[in-house]
Amino acid sequence: MEPRIDVMQNEFGTKLAKRMYAVHALVQPALPHSTQNLVMLRASQINGCGNCIDIHAKEAAAEGETATRLNLVAGWRHSTVFTEEEQAALALTEEATRLADASEGVSDETWARAAKYYDENQLIALVTLIAMINATNRMAVTLNQLGGSYEPGLMEAVVSN
């Protein structure tokens, strides 16, 4: 399978990526980086986005995330390595990513669990992060952006130029 379009080599694609990254930059100070990495990795796993899994796993590892935690993200409910706050964020990520699979969308129970650990600004940041990674996953999967060759720091370098 070949990429349909190399977004980062396309002028319009690069402009769009920079704007999407700017939204992420607004979210970054509101949430722990480790939580952001876990959320982006989990949504990317659910959506089957190899490119984004590659990016977020490698960026998380470069920021000091352990291999054990990265390897257990998909099975977070059945592991002991995530805090209650991280588990709440991962539960929200799963339900918000799987909206089409759930008749009621994000359950009141999952929302209350997240609201127990995150204030309103953090919840807005978390929901925005989930929405943005889902949009990015859908673009990358549709355009056949392939995972495997990403080097940590590359995304930051491309969008900051």
TrEMBL record:
The keyword Nucleotide-binding does not apply. The keyword Oxidoreductase applies. InterPro entries: AhpD-like (IPR029032), AhpD_core (IPR004675), CMD-like (IPR003779). One of its GO terms (molecular function) is peroxiredoxin activity. Gene3D superfamilies: AhpD-like. Residues 24-95 form the Carboxymuconolactone decarboxylase-like domain. Keywords: Oxidoreductase, Peroxidase. This is AhpD family alkylhydroperoxidase. It comes from Kribbella jejuensis.
